[in-house]
């Protein structure tokens, strides 16, 4: 991709792109780590942003960068770095915590953009996929945003069948609301397929996982209760091994849809390399 094209996609000048490219990548990584961003987070951000830019979706790219930056700021991730620069900052300063106000639908749309990746098409199960995001304190299906009609492969690209709607998935609503009783900060989940290669990809991803099942002819409540029984706040993935009348499924959890999408993208990369 030319420097001019990169400049157009990022909304900067071509000379600025030239200057960025002339600098050693390790220099930028070192700066980001010194600010408080972990190496894995850098890799995930770069991969997700690259996938969006390859599709030339400038609006989605800008939304992704802005949203992730504000989430880092509001999470007070840069405070130590900032205090090293300015010693006069009060020790109890938390002004950045108010910089970001969560927009549930915007976060889910950004995650869907990240999931439009050919690698992820191999992870869509026969029952199709969905991704859900619950309001804080969610207590019913109508408190959970998801995709009516689910996510299916369209010409090798995972695509949402419709716009996200509150109450869009009764199954994932039951799962995430039940899990929130164990860990209220975990508010998002996506279901992808399960097989031994997916399990191997999750292990390589260094994600924490548990297994449940098999359960024969299990309903939504039984599945959710089984997941809850092995769940804690450090759990990233739960493998449900299916049963009679039930396809095996992998549930990927996170604090928000962007975190879930980043984990799914990571799993997809390792799955493709198997």
Automatic annotation (TrEMBL):
Family annotation (Pfam families): ThiN (PF10120)
> Which top-rank group of organisms is this from?
Archaea
In terms of Gene3D superfamilies, this protein maps to: Class II aldolase/adducin N-terminal domain (3.40.225.10)
All copies of the Thiamine-phosphate synthase ThiN domain together span: 110-265
Put simply, this protein is called Bifunctional thiamine biosynthesis protein ThiDN
Organism, scientific name:
Sulfuracidifex tepidarius
């Amino acid at each position: 991709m030319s420097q001019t094209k990169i400049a157009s996609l990022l909304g900067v000048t071509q000379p600025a792109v030239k200057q960025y490219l002339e600098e050693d990548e390790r220099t930028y990584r070192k700066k980001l780590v010194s600010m408080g961003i972990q190496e894995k987070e850098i890799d995930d951000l770069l991969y997700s942003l690259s996938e969006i830019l390859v599709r030339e979706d400038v609006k989605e790219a800008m939304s992704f960068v802005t949203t992730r930056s504000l989430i880092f700021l509001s999470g007070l991730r840069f405070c130590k770095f900032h205090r090293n620069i300015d010693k006069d900052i009060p020790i109890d300063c938390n002004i950045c915590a108010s910089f970001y106000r969560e927009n549930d639908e915007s976060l889910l749309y950004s995650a869907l953009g990240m999931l439009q990746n050919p690698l992820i098409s191999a992870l869509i199960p026969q029952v199709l996929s969905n991704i859900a995001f619950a309001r804080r304190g969610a207590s019913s299906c109508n408190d959970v945003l998801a995709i009516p009609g689910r996510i299916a492969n369209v010409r090798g690209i995972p695509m949402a069948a419709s716009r996200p709607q509150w109450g869009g998935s009764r199954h994932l609503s039951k799962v995430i609301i039940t899990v929130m009783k164990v860990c209220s900060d975990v508010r998002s989940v996506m279901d992808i397929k399960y097989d031994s290669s997916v399990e191997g990809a999750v292990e390589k991803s260094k994600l924490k996982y548990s297994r449940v099942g098999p359960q024969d002819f299990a309903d939504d409540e039984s599945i959710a209760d089984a997941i809850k029984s092995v769940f804690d706040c450090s759990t990233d993935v739960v493998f449900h091994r299916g049963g009679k009348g039930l396809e095996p499924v992998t549930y990927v959890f996170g604090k928000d849809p962007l975190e879930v999408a980043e984990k799914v993208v990571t799993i997809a990369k390792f799955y493709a390399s198997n």
